[in-house]
Amino acid sequence: MTKMMKLAVAALLGVAVLSTTASADAEKGKKIYMKKLKGACGFSGAKFAAKHTQDEWEAINTAGKFGEEVTKICPKAKLDSKFEKDVYDFAYEYASDSGNVPSC
Fold first, then answer.
1. 3 state DSSP class of 88
2. Can you give the residue ranges of every domain in the chain?
3. Average per-residue pLDDT in the chain?
4. Cα 49 from Cα 57, distance rounded (Å)
5. DSSP state of 83
6. pLDDT, mean of residues 1-26
7. Rounded Cα gap, residues 71 and 48, in angstroms
8. CA-CA-CA-CA torsion sign (10, 14, 17, 19)
9. Is the dihedral of CA 15, 85, 78, 27 positive or negative?
10. Is 73 exposed, middle or buried, given 0-12, 13-18 or 19+ CB atoms closer than 10 A?
11. Which of 3, 86, 93, 94 could form a disulfide with 49 if both were Cys (CB 3.0 to 4.6 A apart)?
């Protein structure tokens, strides 16, 4: 019985670790915005995220148009597709209707 319990705990721990590393992160998105987009956009991350509500950001992302929207908001900015999920989480977390204000 203890072998089965150890196996179950190990499997649960493995799934928990893999699921957290596979998901995007708003804090990481904020850092990416500050490093890669802030200079090109010319305004803070708070202003960027407040361009849309959470529902609007979600609809844009679901439609696969997030990269295009970033380019529309910041024409000089170039965002690699590998950073889109994190920047989306940042924009969603600090959207105009979220009540959250980032420190960037």
1. helix
2. 24-104
3. 86
4. 9
5. G
6. 65
7. 12
8. negative
9. negative
10. middle
11. 94
Q: Give the DSSP letter of residue 43.
A: S
Q: What is the pTM of this model?
A: 0.73
Sequence-ordered list of residues with C-beta below 8 angstroms from that of 97, at least 6 positions apart, any chain? 53, 54, 55
Residues in CB range of 56: below 8 A, 6 or more apart: 95
The two structure tokens encoding residue 50: 């407040």
CA separation for the pair 22, 85 (Å, rounded): 11
The CA distance from 7 to 86, in Å, is 33
Give the Cβ contact number of residue 49 at 10 Å: 27
Q: Could you tell me if residue 69 is left (phi over 0), alpha (psi between -120 and 50 degrees) or otherwise beta?
A: alpha
Count of CB atoms situated within 10 Å of the CB of 102:
21
